[in-house]
Amino acid sequence: MVTGGIELLFGLHRDSLGTAVLLGMGGVTAELFKDTTMKLLPASAPLSHEEVLTMPQSLKTWPLLDGYRGQPRADVDATVSALVAFSRMAAQLGERLIEAEINLVFVLRAGEGVLAADGVAVIAPL
User: Fold this and answer.
1) pTM tops 0.85, yes or no
2) What is the pLDDT of residues 94-105, one digit of tens each?
3) Which domains, and CATH codes, for the chain?
């Protein structure tokens, strides 16, 4: 069991307007606070590290990740790398991937990484 991490979620939704990659607070806070940010995935390409870097900072709950009130800073670098990898998966699967979610993503202390606890994907048949 993981304890002490910040709970986030990664999401992806594809429709006729494009593909959105989402980052938000996860777990029980996901629906309670609705604190999310998203970026549109470039056509058949993953998001870059630079594009994802601003996403955690745009969350209202950013201070929790940044070491609020003397708490240790969370591993934002690992979060960004994991979200880039998530967008790479979406780009590789292309239109076959309809939607996906990883919830919970536990963000551990700086330097300790992230852990995904659960995920689901909807993939169109060939």
Assistant:
1) yes
2) 999 999 999 999
3) 6-23+30-123 (3.30.470.20)
